[in-house]
Known about the structure:
Distance between the termini: 15 Å
Number of strands: 2
Structural class: mainly alpha
Helix content: 55-70%
Order of helices and strands: EHHHHHHHHHHHHHEHH
Number of helices: 15
Strand content: under 5%
Amino acid sequence: xxxxxxxxxxxxxxxxxxxxxxxxxxxxxxxxxxxxxxxxxxxxxxxxxxxxxxxxxxxxxxxxxxxxxxxxxxxxxxxxxxxxxxxxxxxxxxxxxxxxxxxxxxxxxxxxxxxxxxxxxxxxxxxxxxxxxxxxxxxxxxxxxxxxxxxxxxxxxxxxxxxxxxxxxxxxxxxxxxxxxxxxxxxxxxxxxxxxxxxxxxxxxxxxxxxxxxxxxxxxxxxxxxxxxxxxxxxxxxxxxxxxxxxxxxxxxxxxxxxxxxxxxxxxxxxxxxxxxxxxxxxxxxxxxxxxxxxxx
Length: 297
């Protein structure tokens, strides 16, 4: 993949100011948007049930991949409304009616079939069937997700060994989705906080999708980026993930990386459109270097 120099770059002091702003935005939006899109309809009894929340959010992370995010989260909520906690807590009871569960999911779920090159029904069946199988298997082997996840000492260890190193989970989650899930279940400001307050927020991995990488390039935080080809300047987010995470740690060693990531994502989808960004409304307007030729897609 070709690498290009970013046209206008921030100074180190400006980079710190950028991360401070993104962290504030992300911190303010994290719980608010999780509540609105996923947690709002859960019965109070299960809002404090760690095992249920771990399982519920895992399905959300699985369905969110290469799909319309709103449709994925709506599908999880609808399945909860139709089947209650039982679908998540007793998956083995639903193996003989997986066709019914998938048919209900198909009413709301919109995976990106052109990207995945599979039929919608096939993607949905594989993801929901795979999810139920994984939950059942890990429950039989370890007693549940909570007891399994607590075998790993910190969020990074959980990501690399507990999820990406476990066949039943790495088969369900690409690395980006796994990072999102780890943030959801370990961040001290979110409901589960698997490790309580024992971890630093700087230990939680960033997600870094296309929107986040785009913001880091357009603002001038990055000095050079890898792109798909010189003509369209679409940033290679997956290849830039490690560079972005390390650059953030260098500038703000004890920063809340997950909140910084979410702040950049929020800016990317709400203000920084691919072709016509709303710079005048953007909270980063007076700081951003506006390298708008770089895009997420």
